[in-house]
Amino acid sequence: MSEQRHFFVGGNWKMNGTYASIDEILKFLNGDNLDPKTEIVVAPPSLYLSYVRGKLNKNISVAAQNAYKVEKGAFTGDISPTQIKDVGGDWVILGHSERRHVFKEPNELIGEKVGHALSAGLKLIPCIGEKLEEREANKTEEVCFCQMKAIAENVKDINDWKRIVIAYEPVWAIGTGKVATPQQAQEAHHSVRQWISKNVSPDVAKCVRIIYGGSVTAGNCRELAQQPDVDGFLVGGASLKSEFVDIINARK
Ligand code: 13P
């Protein structure tokens, strides 16, 4: 657990929420029992980004769940970093496992999106993580390093790493109720940090936050949060419920 890396908890709502259910989520997010030491970001569906930004306390930032690799144009159905900023979003999640595997986004496209979102001035949560068969074939590092390479190649200015939080989300743990053990999470985060130290810089490796995602709950977050290389969480299902507050407070 690092003192120099500010604990970070993101809520990825995925394709969930309507005005009625979002108003319920806003109630607990706008409550007064959130650990002020945790940096908090929520990612509603882009349709509701502006609504959430307007209603949410300013100590919580808002993210989009994806963005395309250019500023504007004939890309039906997509949104751009410029538009995210325009409606009050500061962050964007890129390369989420569902973008990679449901929507077949390749590493190269995710890299291009990283480069463009940085140049547009957003803060980024790029996601990496192996599938079950890759873990079973001992390919966790190979897969994560390859995903990291596509991301890192598009971070042109070393100072831009200050605007990046890496999410390690093993695909087999997402939405399955099968959380990584604290040891599995620590091992993966440590090896990603070592990769960054070797391929980007030791200083960036020391400062960059690596958060864990995949079936994080109020029940399992505390032990995970004690791991030295786990700097926070990216939460799916549990971010829609009031237990998200317990996850925000995992180090309280
Ligand atoms: P769950 O917390 O629902 O497993 O989802 C994790 C995730 O994909 C967050 O981005």
TrEMBL record:
InterPro entries in the record: Aldolase_TIM (IPR013785), TIM_sf (IPR035990), TrioseP_Isoase_bac/euk (IPR022896), Triosephosphate_isomerase (IPR000652), Triosephosphate_isomerase_AS (IPR020861)
Keywords of the record: Gluconeogenesis, Glycolysis, Isomerase
First-level EC class: isomerase
GO CC, alphabetical: cytosol
GO molecular function, one term: triose-phosphate isomerase activity
Pathway of action: Carbohydrate biosynthesis; gluconeogenesis; Carbohydrate degradation; glycolysis; D-glyceraldehyde 3-phosphate from glycerone phosphate: step 1/1
Keyword Isomerase: yes
Swiss-Prot/TrEMBL catalytic activity: D-glyceraldehyde 3-phosphate = dihydroxyacetone phosphate
EC number: 5.3.1.1
SUPFAM superfamilies: Triosephosphate isomerase (TIM)
Family: Belongs to the triosephosphate isomerase family.
PANTHER family: TRIOSEPHOSPHATE ISOMERASE
Record text on subunit structure and interactions: Homodimer.
Designated name of the protein: Triosephosphate isomerase
Taxonomic lineage: Eukaryota, Metazoa, Spiralia, Lophotrochozoa, Annelida
Gene: 20209976
